[in-house]
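note to self — DONT lose this again. spent like an hour looking for the file last time. sequence + predicted structure for the chain T wanted, 197 res
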Amino acid sequence: MLQAALLALLRELPFEDIEIQTITERANTARVTFYRHYGKKEELLADTLENIYQELQSELTHISVDSLFDLELTPPIQIVFRFVDRDRLLYKNLLMGTMSAFIQQRVRHYLVQQVIITFSQTPRYADLPIILIANNLASQAIGNIMWWLSEDLPYSAEYMARITHVMAFFGALSLMGRSADIRPLPPEVWRLPSDHG
């Protein structure tokens, strides 16, 4: 109830403008109910973010290391861009408000964990600093998502995902001398979509 109320309010207002009283009124519950579960609204936000991550993670469960290297396949980060696109107003308010640093830290943690899980499936990359590759990918994704939202999504989720994936992931592996694992990049990966001249 409280989380659903907070999410609904976040689609209308920045987090800093939402009062506990407003949350409880939207949830049609007493203020005391809020304080039985949370000491402050930031704790409710943290729990809400955790549930959003669980929802996103359910979509990320079938990612293989091979899917990271094959440009013929959909880049796994596209799942994240599409996820954000489905509720863009919510994520714009979350990532552009005063809680942005906190939220970015949580999202970075979630994405890093997912990359580590993916790489743990194969020993082939055990000699690489996977935590640094994961952090680089997560940071690139967050930065590109924030830009994308602030500019009102000028490109598709698919285009943003492909560009983000190539820049972050392939750049890191090239730098670490693993470019043999990378297939040549077709020029269409970098070209702007035809509707953005």
